[in-house]
Amino acid sequence: MFKKKPDKFALYLVDFATHLDKTADYFVNFKVEDVESLHEFADTIKQYESEADNKVHTIIKDLNQAFITPIEREDILQLTMTLDDIVDGLEEFTALMDVYQILSSNTYIDRFADYIKKCASEILVSMELISQSKLPDIEPHAIQIKDYESQCDELYRDSLRYLFQEEKDPIHVIKYKEIYETLEEIADYCQDVASILQSIIMKNA
Q1: 86: closest CA among 126, 45, 57, 58?
Q2: What is the SS3 assignment for 106?
Q3: How do residues 95-121 score in pLDDT, each as one tens digit?
Q4: pLDDT class of 177 with cuts at 50, 70, 90
Q5: Is residue 199 exposed (0-12), middle (13-18) or buried (19+ Cβ within 10 Å)?
Q6: What sign for the dihedral angle of Cα 109, 112, 118, 119?
Q7: Which residues, in sequence order, are CB contacts of 88 under 8 Å at separation 6+?
Q8: 205 pLDDT higher than 80
Q9: Are 30 and 44 in contact (CB under 8 A)?
């Protein structure tokens, strides 16, 4: 007769994951055409990153005052900080694109971005399952995130192999090596979220 309301912290995690998914969607779909649109791209992602920082502050403040949490407070904190790491990574990537004045994407960047967006979508579903107290149902989504990260590992090796074999300009090599490393690091953060989720499932089984 009376449905239990989702816990405040579970809703915070859903809100943060929704924000990440929105950021990743913009990240994937925005088309850079010139210097002006590159600035717009970097500035908008920076705004998303600032909003994520505000969410972190709110969660930590409330967590310090909470008596009961839906899952261990350490797990809530780890999820919060790792979600923030992903958004920070997206902001770092766009800042590098702006600094290096890279006005076009390539196949490797596009594929990395696609995997990151897919990870963000899986993370959002997982946080919604936490809010619904359906922890066992999270497992396939955590596995899927790890599979996407594994594909990013292969993509990273392929991108560097192509870069060092085909590119003759050393400055270009330096720029794109850092770009690919940043994208791979974002995928690693997504995998970290999956590992935390699997740990939560085990502890609450």
Answers
A1: 45
A2: coil
A3: 999 999 999 899 999 999 999 999 999
A4: very high
A5: middle
A6: negative
A7: 49, 52
A8: no
A9: yes
* Whether the predicted pLDDT of 141 surpasses 70: yes
Name the pTM for this structure. 0.94
Average pLDDT for the chain: 94
Residues 200 and 21: their CA atoms lie apart, in Å, by 21
- Report the C-alpha gap between 7 and 59 in whole angstroms: 13
Question: Encoding tokens for residue 152?
Answer: 């990013």
Q: What's at 30, amino acid-wise?
A: F
DSSP letters, 9-65, are HHHHHHHHHHHHHHHHHHHHH----SHHHHHHHHHHHHHHHHHHHHHHHHHHHHHHH
Distance of CA 111 to the CA centre of its chain: 15
Residue 63 has phi, psi (to 5 degrees) of -65, -35
Hey, what are 174's tokens? 């330096």
Helix pair 73-100, 170-203: axis angle to 10 deg: 170
Distance CA 125, CA 130 (A): 9
Token pair listed for 66: 């909470």
pLDDT (0 to 100) of residue 143? 98
Q: Which two tokens stand for residue 25?
A: 């969607």
The Cβ of residue 115 has, within 10 Å, a number of other Cβ atoms equal to: 21
What integer pLDDT is reported at residue 204 of this predicted model? 85
Element (H, E) at 109: helix 107-131
